[in-house]
């Protein structure tokens, strides 16, 4: 399969004659998916295309997700009582039951407060930096009935990046797959940029992928695994391109950093514990004590009152901070420890020594996902494979070593960035040239 191949960039004459309108379809909406990586990759693709003379809009998605039915303390108690009323010992468990329900209620209230603050921070940031479609769309049907209107307004449609084709990412993603396969677009050019599958595509979905992607003008994916899965499903051999966040240079990202008033006054470790948080924090707490450092983290449970003495060197939780502050904290940290793909990317962009914590292989098999692939693919391409490992205990064993040749890493990164930029611009030029020629 083809990966990171340089291409001959065609003339931008078409773009200079008339600014072309591009619609990006990705895992973002004005009030949906408050994920740092998802938001920043959307910004990066938008900014790169704008810098090349395109007018860019991000589709405002707000999917109809299944509501989780939750009841109050009293309601839950009586439901439990009905289930257990025939058991003589239910009375004996009453004190424990009430205590447990009280704690659960406290945690739910605590979590809602953090979630609301996070939502407001992301909404404000997106309103400042992302250009969304006028209307919000919750399902494929709403888009499909307006297909003609979309095709009048936009010249090219791009799906990606991020895990737009990962049907195992969430139970709801399968319902959105027609959106991310751009099946609501009938006649205008369609391109995928660094789309990610990150799972095994079921044989039953091969026809859906094959039919949809046969109508794409150009296809690129983000990692080798995705390329292999798309090839098996469709017979199409996609290009492998870098994540959109890597299309921008460090200086470009500096423009989007927002100073955080909460920045620690002493050296700190930035922990983006998106997954495997408890395992990671256990080791970070030990090394922070040993190295006389503090650390900041993502998961809010560590700040629950009963964890105060467990994580004594945890200084700040940034869960409710916007993406600009997220970038600031990474750039100003001493070291980065992350279980996140985009956490790894921004450590590399800002030249911060880091460790990437992987999912255990057995867990990946059970979950049916290939989340490690995207991290390993990138690190191998940059000769940084030794910075990733499964066992968080390696953090303590290895210490916060900064033995990274950043000049060599960024030289390789510049090459990958250039090749991916050229692939995308070449794909756009070709489809726009065909449109201009009426073919």
Mind sketching the topology for me?
Layout lengths: L12 H5 L3 E5 L10 H16 L3 E7 L11 H12 L9 H36 L2 E6 L2 H5 L2 H7 L2 E4 L13 H8 L9 E6 L10 H8 L4 E4 L2 H11 L4 E2 L9 H5 L13 E5 L4 H15 L2 E4 L16 E4 L5 H9 L3 E4 L2 H9 L4 E4 L3 H7 L3 H11 L6 E2 L3 H6 L7 H31 L3
Parallel strand pairs: 1-2, 1-4, 2-3, 4-5, 5-6, 6-7, 8-9, 8-11, 9-10, 11-12, 12-13
Provide structural commentary.
The protein is of the alpha/beta class and 439 residues long. The chain has 3 domains: 13-66 and 123-249, Rossmann fold; 73-118; 251-414, Rossmann fold (3-Layer(aba) Sandwich), CATH 3.40.50. It has 17 helices and 13 strands. The strands form 2 sheets. A 7-stranded parallel β-sheet has the order 3-2-1-4-5-6-7. A 6-stranded parallel β-sheet has the order 10-9-8-11-12-13, with helices on both faces. Strand 11, helix 13 (341-349) and strand 12 form a beta-alpha-beta unit. The longest helix is centred in the first third of the chain and has 36 residues, at 94-129. The radius of gyration is 23 Å and the shape is globular. The protein starts with 12 loop residues before the first helix and ends with a helix. Residues 3-17 and 66-88 have low confidence and may be disordered. Pfam families: PS_pyruv_trans (PF04230).
């Amino acid at each position: 399969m083809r990966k990171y191949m340089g291409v001959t960039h065609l003339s931008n004459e078409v773009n200079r004659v008339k600014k072309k309108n591009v619609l990006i379809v990705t895992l973002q909406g004005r009030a949906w998916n408050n994920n740092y990586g998802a938001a920043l990759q959307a910004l990066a693709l938008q900014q790169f295309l704008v810098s090349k003379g395109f007018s860019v809009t991000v589709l405002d998605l707000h999917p109809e997700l299944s509501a989780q039915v939750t009841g109050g303390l009293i309601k839950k108690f009586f439901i439990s009582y009905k289930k257990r009323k025939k058991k003589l010992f239910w009375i004996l468990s009453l004190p424990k039951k009430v205590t447990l329900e009280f704690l659960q209620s406290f945690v739910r209230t605590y979590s809602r407060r953090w979630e609301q603050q996070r939502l407001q921070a992301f909404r404000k940031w997106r309103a400042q930096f992302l250009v969304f479609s006028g209307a919000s769309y919750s399902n494929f049907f709403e888009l499909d009935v307006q297909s003609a209107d979309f095709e009048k307004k936009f010249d090219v449609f791009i799906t990606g990046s991020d895990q737009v084709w990962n049907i195992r990412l969430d139970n709801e993603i399968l319902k959105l797959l027609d959106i991310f396969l751009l099946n609501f677009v009938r006649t205008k050019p369609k391109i995928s940029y660094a789309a990610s599958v990150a799972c095994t595509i079921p044989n039953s979905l091969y026809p859906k992928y094959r039919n949809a992607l046969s109508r794409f003008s150009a296809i690129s994916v983000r990692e080798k695994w995705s390329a292999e899965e798309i090839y098996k499903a469709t017979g199409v051999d996609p290009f492998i391109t870098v994540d959109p966040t890597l299309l921008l240079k460090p200086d470009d990202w500096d423009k989007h950093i927002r100073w955080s008033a909460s920045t620690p006054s002493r050296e700190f470790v930035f922990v983006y514990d998106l997954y495997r948080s408890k395992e990671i924090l256990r080791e970070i707490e030990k090394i922070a004590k040993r190295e006389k450092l503090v650390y900041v983290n993502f998961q809010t449970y560590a700040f629950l009152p009963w964890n105060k003495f467990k994580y004594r060197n945890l200084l700040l939780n940034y869960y409710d901070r916007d993406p600009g502050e997220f970038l600031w904290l990474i750039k100003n940290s001493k070291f980065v420890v992350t279980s996140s793909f985009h956490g790894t990317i921004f450590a590399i962009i800002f030249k911060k020594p880091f460790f990437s914590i992987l999912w255990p292989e057995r867990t990946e098999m059970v979950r049916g996902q290939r989340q490690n692939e995207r991290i390993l693919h990138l690190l191998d391409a940059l000769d940084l494979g030794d910075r990733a490992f499964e066992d968080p205990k390696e953090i303590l064993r290895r210490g916060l070593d900064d033995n990274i040749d950043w000049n060599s890493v960024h030289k390789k990164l510049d090459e990958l960035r250039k090749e991916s930029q050229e692939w995308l611009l070449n794909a756009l030029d070709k489809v726009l040239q065909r449109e201009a020629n009426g073919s």
